[in-house]
Amino acid sequence: MEVVYRCSRCGFIAEASTWLWRCPRCGGPLDVNIKGLKLTLSERRDMWKFSSVIPAKPLASLGEGFTPLVRPGFLRGNTYMKLEYLNPTGSFKDRGSAVAVSKAVELGAKLVIEDSSGNAGISVAAYAAATGIRARIYVPRDAPEGKKSLIRSLGAELIEAPSRAEAGRMAIESLRDGEAYLGHTWNPWFLQGTKTMAYELLDQLGHVPDAVVLPVSAGTLLLGLWIGFNELRSIGLVSRVPRLYAVQPQGFASLYEKIHGSTAGEPTRIADALRVSNPPRLGQMVDAIIGSGGDALVMTDNEILDSWKTLLRKGFIIEPSSAIALSGYLRLLNGNYLSNDREAVIVLTGNGLKYIDTMGRI
Which parts of the sequence belong to the Tryptophan synthase beta chain-like PALP domain (predicted)? Predict the structure, then answer.
């Protein structure tokens, strides 16, 4: 497997033998490209079943991946839910953390740094603990207390910032020699983990669905699916990419605004896991939406809250930022963007057990 970094902005290319998280020439986001891609399935029953297409050794693994794909009885029969909130630390971020932390350790990092609204921080803290290296996590001060407590309990150093944007700035400015910045909004290795969901959906369904509806903030899952499905197409295992529908909350809908124009309305107060204002890979996110034939949607807090209550009362213990995917699915269905004969997968990304206090208030 030949692996290289590539910058789509300036054309920079280098062997992926050292730790890079952004282009050293222009400062843009890097991609990890694999030459001679071949899929050979292992006997493992986790994400590393697809290790032949993951450019890292499984040094950090907690059993991530192969989350259930269920057909809920309260939705039309050809709709599935992918229960990513049942990953080891309760979010899809475990796919990206497993690869990014593994690669950081492989390349000699002694400490990993992440900035996060909560879920990615918990995930990186857990995978760092699993490998015995230190982690420093920057979060906005108003991140849920349950998430901050989990980060501390996992042994990571927690640093609070005035805002989500400041958490990112402080994390990058803190970097020292021997430390690896895992910032999932930038990190190309993170996407090599999230892409495994595409491989997994093909494995579970036996084919690709017509559409995937998912929450989107910085685009790590959206881009992972785009990469994964295109890799599957390049090696001849599928003939098409599903339509990807990105669902965003009011106030943090940069992808929607890039495609459709500005939005109005009060910024979300409950979808805290989706509060990224200026994702560095926005151009790539637009390409994924347009290239797949999908679209971006914006939801209000009332719509998110209704979907959250619905899912909780159907037995799905998810966070409000996950419930937004059901809101988007219902909007698409009611607007005839998804016809009744089309197969769709709704991705539920984060666990609601981190929101017990919030649940009590609603």
Answer: 61-350
* List of E strands, 216-339: 243-249, 295-299
- Do 157 and 240 fall within a single domain? no
Report helix, strand or coil for 82: strand
**Distance (Å, whole) CA 196 – CA 48:** 9
Reported as a single tens digit per residue, the pLDDT across 323-340 is 999 999 999 999 888 887
Same domain? For 75 and 100 the reply is: no
Six-digit token pair at 306?
């209704």
Residue 316 has pLDDT above 80, yes or no: yes
Instruction: Name which of 185, 219, 182, 228 is nearest 54 in CA terms.
Output: 228
* Whether residue 195 sits in one domain with residue 84: yes
Quick one: 29 exposed, middle or buried, by C-beta within 10 A (0-12, 13-18, 19+)?
Answer: buried
Q: Which domain holds residue 127?
A: 93-186
Q: Per the domain annotation, does 63 fall within a domain?
A: no
pTM for this prediction? 0.96
